Amino acid sequence: MAAKDTKNIKLAKQIYDALSTEFPDSSCSLETDCPQNLAIRGILSAQCTDKRVNITARQLFDRFPDMESIASQEPEVIAEIIKPCGLTASKTKSVMAFAKKMTDEWGGVIPNDVDALMEVPGIGKKIANLIVGEVYGTPAVVVDTHCKRVMKRTGITDSEDPAKVEKDIMKAFPEAQWISIGHLSVDLGRKYCTARAPKCGECPLSSFCKRRI
Ligand code: SF4
User: Fold this and answer.
1) What is the pLDDT of residues 144-180, one digit of tens each?
2) Measured in angstroms, how far is the CA atom of residue 202 from the centroid of ligand 1?
3) Ligand 1 centroid, distance to 24 Cα (angstroms)
4) Could you tell me the sign of the dihedral formed by the alpha carbons of 101, 105, 107, 110, in that order?
5) What mean pLDDT do residues 178-196 have?
6) Atom of ligand 1 at shortest distance to CA of 203?
7) Does residue 67 carry a pLDDT above 80?
8) Residues lining ligand 1, CB < 6 A?
9) Which of 174, 176, 205 is nearest to 188 (CA)?
10) Is this structure's pTM higher than 0.85?
11) Which residues contact 62 (CB under 8 A, 6 or more apart)?
12) Mind listing the domains of the chain with CATH numbers?
């Protein structure tokens, strides 16, 4: 094993230990009441806050409580409801395509298969990983904006390319931590390692973070 890999494994353990102590109740910040609703929240989450997504998705599911009713609507009806999440046209297309796949092809069961999920327009690797991780517990890393920032600043990766960041995380952290390190990174990114003014002095990673030392 290369010296850099060994160093990163040690760093990953320090990060994980510190974050799981700081955020013992860390979990997905999208509501996870049922798999198909979570998938739709994932679609709505692109460039939108999880808080806004949870509120908007609740309005959508209150009105259309199953995939059949979503799939059978005119796109304008869905678009009007999900508009607060932004990127309305592409998200409407994606929500409806997902609902149609669920009803017409998948028999109402979300596939535990990242490639199959990525056939839905608008579902990329991040959302597919989120879905298989949260629904099936399949080890998968969700590299969102917080995760990318935290992993670069701490030194786990030197890249900003999500695919490379994902690979570097998978090399450094044990498989059993792939799902939770995503949630923990979000918690850190929100509380301390913010984009503009990170609170390094209070951060639980400050004694070993690459940006800090
Ligand atoms: S020490 Fe600063 S840069 Fe490093 S993870 Fe913490 S907040 Fe982010």
Assistant:
1) 999 999 999 999 999 999 999 999 999 999 999 999 9
2) 9
3) 19
4) negative
5) 97
6) 6
7) yes
8) 150, 153-154, 192-193, 198-200, 203, 205-206, 209, 211-212
9) 205
10) yes
11) none
12) 3-27+141-191 (1.10.1670.10), 35-136 (1.10.340.30)
